[in-house]
């Protein structure tokens, strides 16, 4: 994904970031828990489109919240989420691309949706990923 851009690509961050509430030392365990929790949600729920989208949406939000990499977390989380959806036979999220707005406005809306999800309200993120 990052090719020759960053030599550290694929290596968890080794410092704390103000964008994540988690210490860098927690990242490996948090990532393991994210995978296990996502698998458990998938296995214990029906496989309707809405449910699968919701599981993927929460996976995405949690992955961004963990912020496992020094940089590129949003790009990685969107790609990982789309791959997860495809593995379940679902189309990838649109990530707000159907809106006719500038890149800066789209990014601001994405960040606002993530912040609402941080507070437990997934409605804006749900609207953003399929809007």
Could you explain how this protein is built, in words?
It is globular and about 35 Å long. 16% of the residues are buried. The chain has one domain (24-130): Fic-like fold (Orthogonal Bundle), CATH 1.10.3290. It is built from 5 helices and no strands. Helix 2 runs antiparallel to helix 3 and helix 4 runs antiparallel to helix 5 (123-130). It has helices spanning 27-44, 49-66, 73-87, 103-118, 123-130. The longest helix has 18 residues, at 27-44. By secondary structure, the protein is mainly alpha-helical. The two termini are 25 Å apart.
Based on the model shown, name its key terms.
131 residues; mainly alpha; globular
Mean pLDDT over the residues: 92
Number of strands: 0
Instruction: Write the CATH fold name.
Output: Fic-like fold
Helical content band = 55-70%
Strand content: under 5%
State the secondary-structure class: mainly alpha
Unreliable residue stretches: none
Put simply, the count of helices is 5
CATH class equals: Mainly Alpha
H/E series: HHHHH
Mind telling me which CATH architecture this is? Orthogonal Bundle
What is the count of structural domains? 1
Ends distance: 25 Å
Shape: globular
The fourth-level CATH homologous superfamily is: Fido-like domain
**Major sheet: size, sense and barrel closure?**
none
Radius of gyration: 15 Å
